[in-house]
Design a protein that fits this description.
CATH superfamily of the largest domain: DD-peptidase/beta-lactamase superfamily
Number of strands: 23
Largest sheet: 6 strands, mixed
CATH architecture of the largest domain: 3-Layer(aba) Sandwich
Oligomer: single chain
Distance between the termini: 104 Å
CATH class of the largest domain: Alpha Beta
Number of helices: 22
Number of domains: 2
Strand content: 15-25%
Length: 672
């Protein structure tokens, strides 16, 4: 009032002061209105903000390719429907208030109305009055309200995409408690039709979002599964030294095969994202996010030939339903692995998809054991294919290949021969009569090799076997290898004559199909024992990534050269050719017209006491004879014989190779 009165008196100085005061008050009022009204939401959000949370973002995994660039493992986009709980907060609150009001109304209705004196006493003794709703009931109501709202949204999604969906109550509560800042996956792998239906009416569900993410995919299913391996879900990565993450997006680690051996290279470098979280634990989606981009993993290029791999798998499957066996195909010129087959196999896609217990029960079946890499880990007696080693040892010891040895007839088995070590009779599958080296090899006479090896001795045979590195890992690095059971030179005193006789015909010892493939490749190439190589090189995952520090793996790593005469190796190779090409040979079913195959059949008996419980049948081979480029070893459990069961498998593989090379020379393409 004083200011107004002075203004009326016409004092110019006071009028100026008054104007300044009024303008200042107006500015202050406008500023207060801006802060409290216009920017209320912004400041309220700032007040709610508590801290940042770090999220580990996995990198795009590198691809695995065969030697010609055909994809064996890649990343495929998968569409996922996610529910954002932060957008349902108001619905949670409304549903909670509705339930609470309903519960209060029900309890008030059920109570007897107090009289005047009781109401007056209750007014002055409020602490003694029991509340209508307990604190623990409030927590339960909030829990039920949240689940009810989220479950209704899920049912809306179910009707929209026409797929039955059920919200798992326990998973929802755990997600809300621990990861409410992250989206809750509702549909992990939406089909294209479901994606189209959602996009058509997606605006009706504002809390639901369609997200695309990469998932590991093996386009050829079970093909080369034991070589490629599989992934398992993992949250144990330590990508940033000394740093822990509040949240981790789903990631996978290699647990078998090449996916495991080269996991660090394939996995790449994970990225990081920071989320702004309010005091309720929800993500503030409008806030800016700091991020560190992930770096994709490197691509793995193999020596594998997908065409040969697929044909080998098909040929092995044709042996019969539920075939248990292995096939290894090597390039004897440098040790490159062209095919590595183990049957039965598993589907690596199963480990990154929706798992079912029935499939897992098949995978752990103790009889079929599909998770075991029989080619690199299976331990089997080699049977007569070990006679390649025995024969070479005999020739090195001075055996005259033209000299004949008479095989005695078996008194209890007419038409079959036998030999005796002391009182023990060792049966022969070959007929009695005279045998020179070539005839004994292609007829696979046990008696011939046992009687000659008794003169040659333990050390000569075992020492030569060690030149092939039997009893040692091949260092293929596909998975944990088994070395087999093979004696050392210093074990001679522990082996009696009967056990040594068994050793010389491939009993009493165990090897892996991969070891025998390395062995026959060395015979084929003139005595070079190569380390098998399955990885050719590493390549950047994209054009922006730097090249790997170790980009290539040189072929032809020479582990050893056989200390034997070349003429003796020539005799072994000629005998292997005769085993297939000679009409009396045991490997005649491996013949391929125009592609000269050389091989050796074998059958190993598995006994428990004196009871025969299984047969392991083999065919070890190489081709073509004049210029060996392929070494093929086939092993089948519970087979008939090496000649009847395993040789035809090798024949189909060689025929495919021969046809493909013939067609390629004519400019055509051959189908598997």
């Amino acid at each position: 009032m004083l200011i107004i009165d002075q203004l009326r008196k016409g004092d110019r100085e006071l009028r100026l002061v008054a104007v300044v005061v009024l303008v200042s008050l107006s500015i202050l009022f406008l500023r207060l209105w801006q802060v409290q009204v216009f920017k209320r939401r912004s400041y309220q959000q700032s007040v709610e903000t508590q801290s940042y949370r770090t999220v580990r973002v996995p990198a795009l995994r590198g691809r695995i390719l065969d030697r010609y660039g055909v994809v064996l493992a890649e990343n495929q986009p998968r569409y996922r429907l996610d529910l954002y709980l932060d957008e349902l907060r108001q619905d949670f609150s409304d549903e909670f208030r509705r339930r609470k009001s309903h519960l209060v109304a029900e309890r008030v209705k059920d109570q007897i109305q107090p009289n005047f004196w009781e109401r007056l006493t209750r007014y002055f003794n409020r602490r003694q009055v029991k509340p209508l709703i307990e604190i623990k009931e409030i927590a339960q109501l909030e829990r039920q309200a949240r689940y009810h709202v989220a479950s209704n949204v899920v049912q809306d999604i179910s009707r929209q995409i026409k797929q039955p969906l059920v919200m798992d109550e326990q998973k929802f509560f755990l997600h809300h408690r621990d990861k409410r800042a992250l989206p809750l996956p509702i549909v992990h792998a939406a089909e294209p039709l479901q994606v189209a239906r959602f996009i058509e009416r997606g605006d009706s569900l504002p809390a639901v979002s369609l997200e695309a993410h990469a998932i590991r995919y093996y386009p050829h299913g079970t093909t080369a599964a034991h070589l490629l391996g599989h992934l398992n879900r993992s949250d144990e990565f330590e990508d940033f030294e000394g740093m822990s993450f509040d949240y981790r997006l789903p990631d996978y680690a290699g647990k078998y095969g090449l996916e495991s051996t080269f996991d660090a290279e394939l996995r790449g470098q994970a990225g990081m994202r920071s989320l702004l979280i309010n005091s309720a634990g929800y993500r503030i989606r409008t806030a800016e996010e700091d991020s560190l981009a992930s770096q994709p993993g490197t691509n793995l290029v193999l020596t594998l030939d997908l065409g040969i791999q697929q044909v080998a798998e098909k040929a092995l499957a044709e042996v019969g339903a539920g075939t248990r066996g292995a096939v290894v195909v090597l390039d004897p010129r440098n040790g490159d692995v062209l095919a590595l087959v183990s049957s039965p196999a598993f589907d690596p896609n199963w480990f990154v998809g929706t798992r079912d217990t029935n499939t897992w029960a098949r995978y752990i079946n103790p009889h079929f054991r599909p998770m075991v890499n029989r080619a690199a880990m299976g331990q089997y007696s080699p049977g007569s294919i070990f006679k390649i080693v025995t024969a070479l040892a005999l020739l090195e010891d001075g055996l005259d290949p033209e000299a004949e040895l008479g095989v005695s007839p078996d008194p209890t088995r007419p038409g079959r021969g036998c030999t005796f070590i002391g009182r023990r009779k060792i049966e022969d599958t070959a007929a009695p009569g005279p045998y020179n080296f070539r005839k004994a090899f292609i007829k696979s006479s046990n008696s011939y090799f046992i009687e000659h090896s008794q003169k040659t001795g333990f050390k000569r045979v075992v020492e030569l076997a060690h030149q092939f590195h039997l009893g040692e890992p091949t260092n293929i690095r596909v998975t944990q290898e088994e070395t087999g059971n093979f004696p050392r030179l210093e074990d001679e005193s522990e082996w009696n004559k009967g056990q040594f006789a068994d050793l010389c015909i491939g009993q009493q010892i165990t090897v892996t199909p991969l070891q025998m493939a390395v062995l026959v490749a060395a015979v084929a190439n003139g005595g070079k024992v190569f380390e098998p190589r399955v990885v050719d090189r590493l390549e950047p995952g994209d054009f922006q990534s730097p090249p790997p520090s170790k980009a290539t793996f040189k072929p032809g790593f020479l582990r050893n050269e056989l200390k034997v005469k070349s003429t003796n190796l020539d005799l072994i190779r000629a005998a292997m050719r005769a085993d297939v090409e000679d009409d009396s040979g045991t490997g005649i079913k491996a013949r391929v017209t125009g592609f000269e195959v050389s091989g050796k059949t074998g059958t190993a008996e598995v006994k428990r006491g004196n009871t025969l419980i299984d047969k392991i049948v083999w065919f070890a081979s190489f081709a073509p004879f004049d210029n060996p480029r392929f070494a093929v070893v086939v092993m089948v459990e519970s087979g008939g014989s090496g000649g009847r069961t395993s040789a035809p498998v090798a024949a189909r593989i060689y025929k495919f190779i021969h046809d493909r090379e013939t067609q390629a020379s004519r400019g055509a393409v051959v189908s598997n």
